[in-house]
Design brief:
Helix content is 34%, strand content 20%. The chain has helices spanning 12-21, 94-100, 103-119, 136-146, 189-201, 229-241, 253-262, 275-284, 293-305, 309-331, 352-358, 363-369, 372-378, and strands spanning 8-9, 25-32, 41-49, 52-57, 67-78, 80-82, 122-128, 153-157, 160-162, 184-185, 206-210, 245-250, 266-269, 288-289, 395-399, 414-417, 420-423. Helix 3 (103-119) packs across helix 4 and helix 5 packs parallel to helix 6.
Length: 429
């Protein structure tokens, strides 16, 4: 569908100053989905200068020495944002993997995985804890921000705070082994406050709590609330006093509602949310990051990739209820933000889009979940998340029309971050 648009641009003086430092780039898109509207725009050009969008229009003139990128057979979109990316984790038995590797090796693999995600269209990630006690996600975040390495901008909750026997504890090891758990395990409000302060001390952007049991952990119940109400309130109070937001791993309906009463800012998974929980999230404007594909992956690929049988059984036991609950959440109009929960190959994280659509989200809704909505959750929506004049030039392209076939979002063919091409478009034959 081609919709005439008015040229949007910076002031002449601003555009001139932007273009003075480096050549202007013109990205000619066959179709543009800007992350704001509900309809695409046809045959539009995006002008980029000094890492930001300088103009958007139908027939922009090419400044002297401008570079032109031809994406006229593709759909251009804002750079994707994943709020649940585990860059240190690789497929298989996550526990065994985390115990075999040093923090240094995890950091190197995490940097590699972050770069894989960037090439697949994700210009921003939030890593809500990984299996490492030594803050390697913080080091990766800072190294990318300094420009030492190419990668997505990264927000991190370095560790997940868990209760004894909870989702972050090592429940399937022998009790006489003296091993350091690769997560933070606490009990009681005072210990919770100290753990939150430690996370902030070492650079946490977010605080992550394991508010219920999980699927990929042994001997805990995904339906059970892991922390007391008092412990949850202590975590939220401490984090908010220090200007940090709190997100929670929460699967069971009771645990979800307890975290909402405590004042958390975001819910991950929410697989068994009920009608009351949905109403509470809407009333409090708390976003849901549903992570749908990961449960399907555990069931479909778990045996082949070495995931323990009891974890696969847990996932299979939740799948039908998950489908009903997430369909209801989508239908109720909750704010949905994209999260993949990458315990699977990082190259396949884009499959989450189609799984969201299968459970009732529209293709445009899935795109907004990974662009404008996710940017608002991170508080960076003035800078990224939509294609608008003045914002950072994070732009991806996919072949065809993802609104007609959402699986097109799994075939990213071009990536630009901050105006710099990190994945060039394939050459035409």
């Amino acid at each position: 569908m081609r919709i005439p648009i008015v040229v949007l641009a910076l002031t002449a003086a601003s555009a001139a100053s932007l273009g003075a430092a480096e050549p202007v780039t013109l990205v000619r898109c066959g179709r543009l989905i800007d992350g704001r509207g509900d309809q695409p725009t046809g045959a539009v050009t995006v002008q980029v200068a000094q890492g930001r969008i300088a103009a958007i229009g139908n027939a922009l003139p090419a400044p002297s020495a401008a570079r032109t990128i031809d994406l006229q057979d593709a759909t251009c979109l804002p750079g994707f944002i994943d709020l649940h990316a585990h860059i240190l984790i690789n497929p298989g038995d996550v526990l065994a993997d985390s115990l075999r590797k040093s923090s240094a090796r995890k950091a190197l693999e995490g940097l590699r995985n972050a770069r894989v995600r960037l090439r697949n269209g994700f210009t921003t990630l939030r890593d809500p804890r990984d299996e490492d006690l030594y803050y390697s996600t913080i080091e990766i975040r800072d190294a990318i921000a300094r420009g030492d390495f190419e990668g997505p901008r990264l927000f991190a909750a370095p560790q997940m705070i868990s209760s004894t026997g909870g989702h972050g504890d090592l429940n399937d090891l022998a009790p006489d082994l003296a091993l350091q758990v690769p997560n933070v395990v606490v009990d009681g409000p005072d210990a919770m406050r100290k753990a939150v302060r430690e996370e902030i001390k070492h650079g946490a952007d977010w605080i992550k709590l394991a508010a219920t049991g999980g699927v990929m952990s042994a001997a805990d119940d995904p339906r059970a609330q892991a922390f007391t109400d008092e412990e949850l309130r202590a975590a939220v109070d401490e984090a908010h006093r220090h200007g940090r937001k709190v997100t929670v791993h929460a699967i069971g309906a009771g645990g979800i509602k307890a975290t909402l009463r405590a004042g958390v800012d975001c819910v991950e998974h929410g697989l068994l949310i009920d009608a009351e929980g949905i109403a509470m999230m809407k009333e409090r404007h708390v976003p849901l990051v549903p992570t749908i594909y990961v449960l399907d992956y555990i069931i479909e690929e778990g045996e082949r990739t070495g995931i323990p049988a009891d974890r696969i059984a847990k996932a299979r036991g939740l799948q039908a209820e998950r489908d009903r609950a997430i369909r209801a959440a989508f239908a109720a109009g909750l704010t949905i933000a994209f999260g993949s929960d990458t315990i699977f190959p990082h190259e396949t994280a884009n499959r989450e889009f189609a799984r969201m659509v299968r459970l009732g989200l529209s293709p445009m809704g899935a795109i907004k979940a990974a662009t404008a909505n996710a940017a608002r959750v991170l508080g960076i929506d003035e800078d990224v998340g939509t294609l608008e004049v003045g914002k950072r030039a994070d732009l991806v392209a996919v072949p065809g029309n993802p609104l007609a076939d959402v699986t097109a979002l799994e075939s990213v063919s071009f990536v630009m971050k901050d105006g710099r091409v990190v994945r060039p478009a394939p050459e035409r034959p």
